């Protein structure tokens, strides 16, 4: 079970190794929302919060996740809200501006890259339009990974970038 795994794979070895000290090590859980079962996502949060609440727990946790209702609801529960401090990347100043810069720069590289020279020579400039950039920035919701994934998909060497972008849109 997950609670036994937490005990045997994380807590017990950390005690045996004497992990801890002034600045505890950081455990990163990235993409909690990508765990297939919503109940398991909530259970993971419960297990971590139970462990963290133990005096002398030797780790800090950074839990990254898209904002899903069941995850947000769990973080609002009294037992967990005292232990964790949420940070929303969507509200950080200049995030949209920086995502726009990433997209504009990435699309320019795609447009000018030699591998796309034949398929992009007839595309009207600027490409893509500012309206499309604005739409993609909105869809990113403050998440750089969305912008990077779009750029990687559009830059597929075996496809026409304009067609790939149309598929994304």
UniProtKB/TrEMBL annotation:
This is NACHT domain-containing protein. It comes from Crucibulum laeve.
């Amino acid at each position: 079970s997950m609670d036994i795994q937490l005990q045997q794979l994380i807590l017990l070895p950390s005690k045996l190794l004497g992990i801890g000290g002034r600045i505890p090590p950081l455990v990163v859980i990235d993409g909690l929302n990508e765990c297939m079962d919503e109940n398991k996502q909530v259970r993971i949060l419960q297990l971590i919060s139970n462990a963290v609440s133990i005096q002398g727990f030797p780790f800090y946790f950074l839990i990254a996740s898209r904002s899903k209702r069941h995850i947000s609801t769990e973080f609002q529960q009294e037992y967990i809200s005292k232990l964790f401090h949420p940070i929303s990347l969507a509200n950080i100043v200049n995030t949209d501006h920086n995502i726009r810069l990433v997209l504009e720069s990435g699309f320019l590289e795609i447009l000018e890259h030699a591998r796309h020279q034949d398929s992009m020579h007839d595309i009207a400039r600027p490409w893509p339009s500012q309206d499309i950039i604005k739409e993609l920035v909105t869809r990113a919701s403050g998440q750089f990974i969305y912008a990077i994934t779009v750029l990687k998909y559009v830059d597929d060497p075996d496809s026409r970038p304009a067609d790939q972008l149309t598929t994304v849109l």
